[in-house]
Amino acid sequence: MGEKVTLQGWLYNKRSSGKLHFLEVRDGSGICQCVVFKGEVSPELFARADHLTQETSLRVTGTVREHGKLKGTFEVGVAELEVLAEPAREYPISPKEHGTDFLMDNRHLWLRSKRQWAILRVRAEIVAAVRDYFDSNGFTLVDAPIFTPNACEGTSNLFSTDYHGDPAYLTQSGQLYMEAAAAALGKAYCFGPTFRAEKSKTRRHLAEFWMVEPEVAFLDLDGDMDLAEDFLVSVVSRVLDKRRKELEILERDTKPLERVQKPFPRIRYHEAIEILRKAGHDAKVGDDFGGDEETVISQGFDRPVMVHRYPIDLKAFYFKRDPKDLSLALNVDVLAPEGYGEVIGGGQREEDLSKLEQSIDVHKLPREAFEWYLDLRRYGSFPHAGFGLGIERTVAWICGLPHVRETIPFPRMLNRLHP
């Protein structure tokens, strides 16, 4: 307090009261109230401040002092003000209400709003927490390719492209490559963009999204669930510790997040079916779960719930069957509470070469595209497991957002490729 400072930023909002102009100036790190008092500046500067428009870029110099009404809050008493650039036209996103399509069309500008600023900072904290968790727990980051010759789960929901005359796809997962990395490093993870060409318009789907995918050698399903549980608790705790201010801006009730503690409830797929039936859903064994079903299942728990051992027919070719019931997969989905659905999906992989070959045939996948993947079983096969966490769904859950379109700077959806 009492220190002379210079802020460089943009005018977020302005109001005047007689001999005072209150300028809300954002500089990327936050928003500071800068007060222009008629008796402390030249008449020219006072008049100039009165005509500033939203998003004018400024350089403000003044003295830090405590806010007159809010204890513990500080403002800047302006002594000098320099206009660096004025908007060429009226800023399109005013403080009034705007429709979603309009805001999405102006996403490049909407990012400047207080709400979007808070979301992006929470997202950045989640990403940092993800990296720090794996980096500090013996994992090695391995970059998976974006172009792939094969699909993890079939090609019906992949973006295809030409790769120097050969067909290729934008990756839907780095998992298969992480299995190769686990054989080299023991514990590996990839973190990058993935792509799904699903023709879906739900609030949980994007065409381009980010995933973190760890894979661990000599890990079974129980160990995989332990890892996913510990990891998710660590990420949520980190955000609560470091981004309280941003969560307050988003008006996020943090009590549900504070209950994200170990142990998570673990239920079998068949128990989940019974939960749905008791809730009035016409659910039967063999049904997959969509967003509505996941919401109902999670409503009975105050923290994430792990649903494991789905029917093998619902899962990708690489899942290992439960040796106690060959009709079930050794898989797990982690459903976030409050209706946010699946944030983690994973499980144990089939390490037996002949069984994996048979599964590839059953799923009618091209064997030649997976020869390299089968080599992992031909040369020193080993039990292993892993999972994938979707960053955007996690951001939506932690921030309490109704739609994933706000969780990524420039969302790519079924009918949106711009800006």
UniProtKB/TrEMBL annotation:
Keywords: Aminoacyl-tRNA synthetase, ATP-binding, Cytoplasm, Ligase, Nucleotide-binding, Protein biosynthesis
Protein name listed in UniProt: Asparagine--tRNA ligase
Compartment list: Cytoplasm
HAMAP family: Asn_tRNA_synth
Domain of life of the native organism: Bacteria
One term under GO cellular component: cytoplasm
Family the entry assigns: Belongs to the class-II aminoacyl-tRNA synthetase family.
Native source organism of the sequence: Sandaracinus amylolyticus
Predominant localisation class: cytoplasm
Subunit description: Homodimer.
Molecular function, one GO term: ATP binding
Broadest EC class assigned to this enzyme: ligase
Keyword presence, Protein biosynthesis: yes
Single Gene Ontology BP annotation: asparaginyl-tRNA aminoacylation
Pfam families associated with the record: tRNA-synt_2 (PF00152), tRNA_anti-codon (PF01336)
Reaction it catalyzes: tRNA(Asn) + L-asparagine + ATP = L-asparaginyl-tRNA(Asn) + AMP + diphosphate + H(+)
Gene assigned in the entry: asnS
Aminoacyl-transfer RNA synthetases class-II family profile domain boundaries: 120-409
EC numbers for this chain: 6.1.1.22
Protein biosynthesis keyword on record: yes
InterPro entries, alphabetized: Aa-tRNA-synt_II, aa-tRNA-synth_II, aa-tRNA-synth_II/BPL/LPL, Asn-tRNA-ligase, Asp/Asn-tRNA-synth_IIb, NA-bd_OB-fold, NA-bd_OB_tRNA
